[in-house]
Amino acid sequence: MSVPTPEEIRELIRAKVRDPELMMNIIDLGLVYDIQVTDKNTAEITMTLTSPGCPAGPEIITSVQRETHAAFPDLEEVNIHLTWTPFWNPDMMSDEAKEELGIF
Fold it and tell me: What is the Cα–Cα distance from 34 to 17, expressed in whole angstroms?
């Protein structure tokens, strides 16, 4: 049984999960705050959305769970913890994301 590291999950999400409105991966957008893998083969992912009313929120969360389960079948669970603290803002984006969106 091979359980992924948090960094392997982060790289998977970077490659596979995009915000459908901004067409940018959610890692570079700064939406994923923390990833932990427990000794019970569970991924605990703490993340946020660009706003509480984000219409793509359910799609993004489902995509994180689906892609993580598909890539790492030895994980028993992928739990998403949605938080609004800290509240997301454009400063949380990577420099590459800011540049791509024209935010300086």
Answer: 16
74 CB-contact burial (10 Å; exposed 0-12 / middle 13-18 / buried 19+):
exposed
pLDDT tens for each residue of 35-84: 999 988 999 999 999 999 999 999 999 999 999 999 999 999 999 999 99
Residues 6+ apart with CB under 8 A from 55: 21
CATH fit for domain 6-88, picks 3.30.300.130, 3.40.50.10540, 3.40.50.300, 2.160.20.10: 3.30.300.130
How many other C-beta atoms lie within 10 A of the C-beta of residue 43?
A: 23
Inter-axis angle of helices 57-71 and 6-16, nearest 10: 120
Cα 26 off chain centre by: 5
